[in-house]
Amino acid sequence: MKKLTYILLVSVLTLMGTSCSEEFLDRTPPGNLTDETFYKSPDAGFKSLITCYRGFYDFWGYEAARAELGNMATDDADKGGSDAGDRPFVTDLGFGRTISSNETLQGYWTARYNAIGNCNVALERLPDAPLIDAAGSPLAPALKNRYLAEIRFLRALFYFELAKVYGGVPLVTQTLTVDDRTKLNRVSSKEMFEFIEKELLAAANDPDMLSATNIQATELGRATKEAAWAMLARTYLFFAKDDQTLFAKAKDAAKKVIDSNAFALHPQFQEIFLENGYKTKEAVFSIIMGDDPAIPIYGSTTPVYCSPRGATGGWGFDLPTQDLVSEFEPGDPRLLFTILQSGDIFPKVNATQEVLDFSTYPNTGYHNRKVYLPESRRGQGWGNDAWTYHPIRYADVLLMYAEGLIESGGDKAEAATYINMVRKRASNSSKKDVEAVSRITKIAETPLSDVKATDDLRKAVRHERRVELAMEYHRLFDLIRWNSLVETMKAYSLKPLSNGKGGNFTAGKNEVFPIPQTEIDRSGGSIVQNPNY
To answer: Comparing C-alpha atoms, which of 112, 93, 95, 113 is closest to residue 104?
Structure first.
């Protein structure tokens, strides 16, 4: 993974000289990497792969937008920031009054299609390119196939992220010309699903794809067969809102991950979010940022974006709501490792203490503990931080399997068993924050009770997803796929402390977000807007 943190720099050098002879003009300047010469250069295949992984490293277009959509647009978190005028368009996402010029939605669209464009270029050029490795030897066919399988996984993931937000979008699988912009048409939701499924199945079944069963330490963070099966499970669950037969497919895909025996629930919940969380057996697919201090440009800005303002130096966004906090049961240590409160104390590197103080700006009373870094873990400039995001954790896989069982009419006792695996890990986790001097929140010595086969298992698994994956950017998309986003947000708008958030959500409109008007205009109208926007 450390190699993946390097920036791919292709330097084009202009040769300056005094001669203007015809012979000089016909020469290719030394050091000028053309499209043709690049793919003949050492390690061009790996560098192309790196470029595709760079789709995760756009802060405003991806990191910030991921939190603004997944958390802040829901009942789990409010916007935060310095005041109401700090990124007000983020507030609009959760109030159901989003318009087509929304900056979050424009940035997310652009970042995802930029990432897809890099994948398209690689998938077009690599198959026939005379690739050589770093030592100059011909690249082994199996390694080239693995690169291509990884890229197909990434492109499918990027398209899935678009589909979850906007519905059907233009399906672009090759490099476009300027003239193609007026020929772009949105595909249907079904066509979007079929493409994503096909690409993920190809990656999962490719014999040359890396497997988590024999992954090396230097390869952590790379896509694997098991990550592809897990993403398929998530894809099936999301599109099951339109086709309930997909619940059984989700169950089967998640079971492949379980049966690989490559993963396990990490014994201590908090440690998943600490410095080496990506090295635990919990990590099915992780975005590892800033893991090499020599290359700080790839550090994450998410921790400073979502940390408390004031002396801490954070920007104060993504505030957990009281509604989320109230969802946790007494005795659940996950609450301690999900929220921060004013008065929590952490050590500083100079042997003094950092006392969190939320009194100088509007807030809900809480911040996101999963992204907060004590001073000793902050990067250069507090914003180039070594921090890992886990798009897929093993606990998520277990809960997806349980949900697939429940919704496809499977064994209820088995579904309860898998939910209880996640609950027992939580119960058995430490109730002490290992990085803190002291915490305001205290966890009762009350073990979480087991879910029983006779319980409302749909309610149980949905509760478990909310508390286990809280503030990890899944809430919006769970509500969408459960066909309950509008209902949930309208109900939330009537609760104390909601300030009416969610009250404008309307059925037949707010199940998806508007296509950026800029993209519609660029297409000359060939891309059409979602209904009622």
So the answer is: 93
- List all residues 6 or more positions away from 453 whose beta carbon is below 8 Å from its beta carbon: 412, 413, 415, 416
Tokens of 207: 């014999």
- Position 300 scores a pLDDT of 93
**In whole angstroms, what is the distance from residue 341 CA to residue 111 CA?**
33
- What is the token pair recorded at 29? 């300047």
Residue 92: per-residue pLDDT: 98
Q: What is the DSSP letter of 59?
A: I
Instruction: Identify the weakest region by mean pLDDT among 4-8, 51-55, 358-362, 373-377.
Output: 4-8
CA atoms within 13 A on the CB side of 161: 27
Residue 337: CA count within 13 A, CB half-sphere: 24
Residue type, 458: R
Domains of the chain: 2-516 (1.25.40.390)
Asked if 282 contacts 395 with a C-beta cutoff of 8 angstroms, the reply is yes
Nearest CA to 327 out of 75, 70, 71, 73 is that of: 75
Give the C-alpha separation, 56 to 495, whole Å: 36
pLDDT digits (tens, 9 = 90+) for 500-518: 999 999 999 999 999 999 9
Which amino acid is it at 214? N
- The packing angle between helices 141-166 and 44-53, to 10°, is 20
CA distance 97 to 87: 14
- Closest Cα partner for 66 from 389, 362, 504, 338? 389
Exposure b/e, 368-405, CB count within 10 A at least 16 = b: bbbbbbbbebbbeebbbbbbbbbbbbbbbbbbbbbbbb
CA distances from 392 to 49, 223, 281 (A): 21, 11, 12
Q: How would residue 295 be classed by pLDDT, with cut points 50, 70 and 90?
A: low
362-397 pLDDT, tens digit per residue, is: 999 999 999 999 999 998 778 889 999 999 999 999
What are the pLDDT digits (tens) for 399-443?
Answer: 999 999 999 999 999 999 999 999 999 999 999 999 999 999 999
* Residue whose token pair is 């897990």: 230
* Diameter over CA atoms, the chain: 87
For 487, counting Cβ atoms within 10 Å of its Cβ (0-12 exposed, 13-18 middle, 19+ buried), the class is middle
Whether 335 and 326 have beta carbons less than 8 Å apart is answered as no
Looking up tokens 């990124």, which residue turns up?
87
**DSSP-derived 3-state class of residue 369:** coil
Radius of gyration of the chain (CA): 24
The rounded distance, in Å, linking the Cα atoms of 4 and 222 is 9
Q: Are 334 and 470 in contact (CB under 8 A)?
A: yes
Secondary structure tally for the chain: helices H, strands E: 18, 8
Paired strand residues for 392? 285
Q: Is 362 exposed, middle or buried (0-12, 13-18, 19+ CB in 10 A)?
A: middle
Contact of 117 with 54, CB cutoff 8 Å: no
